[in-house]
Specification:
89 residues; mainly alpha; 4 helices; 57% helix; globular
């Protein structure tokens, strides 16, 4: 993948990971992260005109945003293997 595509894919991958990892909302911090991420996935926001808005990222990557939303809503945190995040040294 080219740089722009890789960047937008990483944005989407991080959002999906944060959504699933915090879906159970066992702590206040998890609730905050989940609500913030779930809000990003919702459509109809003026922010959708931004390059890094969910709808824009999906459009660039050729992903159906409504289908992805439905899939995310039906998944449980342990149903999807999540890639470990790389940390800068």
């Amino acid at each position: 993948m080219e740089g722009e595509c890789r960047l937008l894919f990483a944005v989407l991958e991080d959002a999906v990971s944060r959504y699933l990892m915090n879906k159970k909302c066992e702590t206040e911090e998890q609730r905050r992260i989940f609500k913030e991420t779930a809000h990003w996935f919702r459509k109809g926001s003026d922010a959708n005109r931004s390059l890094f808005a969910f709808e824009s990222v999906c459009s660039f990557l050729g992903i159906d945003p409504d289908r992805l939303r439905k899939g995310l809503a039906s998944l449980q945190p342990l149903e999807v293997p999540l890639r470990k995040q790389r940390r800068a040294a």
